[in-house]
Design brief:
Two copies of one chain form a homodimer. In chain A, 31% of the residues lie in helices and 29% in strands. Chain A has 208 residues and is α+β, with helices and mostly antiparallel strands. The N terminus of chain A is likely disordered. The first copy, chain A, has five helices and eleven strands; from the N terminus they run ββββββββααβααββα. The first copy, chain A, has a four-stranded antiparallel β-sheet with strand order 1-8-3-6, with helices on one face. A four-stranded antiparallel β-sheet of chain A has the order 2-7-4-5. The longest helix of chain A is centred in the middle third of the chain and has 25 residues. The interface between A and B is large, with 52 and 58 residues. Chain A binds a DNA duplex (30 and 30 nucleotides) through helix 4.
Chain lengths: 208, 208
DNA sequence: CGCCCCATTGAATAAACTCAAGTCCCGTGG
DNA sequence: CCACGGGACTTGAGTTTATTCAATGGGGCG
């Protein structure tokens, strides 16, 4: 089997580095349907990528944190839109058509980022398809716990609506689920956006 | 695929081509947790990739069709397992450490496949998170319609359980939803696994 | 021909949603 | 500094949707 038959897409694997760009909360970084001629590396802040349906339903695909590289798309348009959750700084990289051999080892890194995004999307799909509200909430809390300086103390930068749209739930269910976890003694709500995890082990047991 | 290796030994993303392998229905192509030292190109048949939870719940990530290239993973282990749905033939490619410059433009193709898989996973997540049973079913039928020789006649190779696990539903709900679509005159069930779409337009309207 | 698995159908239950009210922050302005 | 206003969050009651459990039908293969 000739390898050239694998596929004829994505001839672009080189790019140029742009300046650092700053975004205010809720500001759009790139839009659904926009030309996907560049991708993004997040420097600081949190950015959400999401599908928006005409009827107002929204599915948040991912919350990106500093270091994340995203915004590659299959095709020429962005499938998702990206918006800053809080104050965010990014570097934009513009695609260029250049031979791989000239790019000095960069494509593998990109490939790695693409793979990480793929892996995340797959995990997310499992969460959305086969989990109850509590299980979803527990998984969400653990995700953020994993990247907090203090694993037991989470500072949420996003609203309940954002969480709901990420987990495929309604705001009300998110709220109720959090109070349920609180009443079960697994978490402690210091404020609406600051949560102490009192039993990470118990949260873990919920998903596997 | 072993991403760590790739990032560590930057500049090495080549692989060797293996023989054609054949799989019987329900036979495992690779397993969850297995070493991800190779990836797959599907030649004929259909293969499903899925997460299996200890309690029996299963989420099918994708149904792959001939031409699809998959089985890259972020990390050293397979996150998903792959099983033949019907008789399937694949070519396995084993990752090797070789300079990019010697690979004659292959990584871009792989990147393209990764991007396609990513795009699919994202669409799938939206479907799982923000759709009703009918909407999911309609999307599923249209997916298969798009790659059938006759767009209006679908031959399903997978069971109702497979469909349910792909759409995040139960078998019963899948069945009920199909009868509902039948009663609404949108589809015609020639047999359990052969469906005629009588109104593709109406099915499309359901999702956007 | 008959069996067995797959699929369908039914009835009751549970989970999450909708609609509606009420509360808590938090920033603003007096 | 405190009162106020408004958005975000929580809580409640009732409804919808999909699930669970259970039984029946049907088609393919030995």
């Amino acid at each position: 089997m000739n390898l050239t038959t694998i596929n004829a897409s994505a001839g672009r694997v080189s790019f140029t580095t742009g300046p650092v760009l700053y975004f205010a909360p809720d500001q759009e970084v790139y839009g659904q349907g926009g030309t996907a001629d560049s991708f993004i590396k997040l420097i600081s802040g949190v950015i959400r990528t999401c599908h928006c349906l005409h009827d107002g339903r929204r599915q948040i695909d991912a919350f990106h944190v500093p270091g994340d590289v995203f915004g590659f798309e299959f095709g020429t348009e962005h499938n998702l839109s990206a918006e800053a959750v809080n104050e965010a700084a990014v570097i934009s990289y513009r695609w260029r058509g250049m031979p791989v051999a000239n790019t000095d080892g960069l494509p593998e890194r990109l490939f790695g980022h693409a793979m990480r995004n793929l892996s995340r999307a797959q995990d997310h799909a499992r969460l959305l398809g086969r989990s109850s509200a509590v299980e979803k909430m527990a998984a969400f809390l653990l995700e953020w716990s994993a990247q907090s300086p203090d694993r037991k103390l989470i500072n949420l930068v996003m609203s309940r609506q954002d969480i709901a749209d990420y987990l495929g739930l309604t705001v009300e269910t998110v709220s109720r689920t959090l109070t349920q976890l609180k009443q079960e003694g697994l978490i402690h709500l210091l404020s609406a956006r600051q949560i102490r995890l009192t039993s990470i082990a118990a949260l873990r047991e919920m998903n596997d």
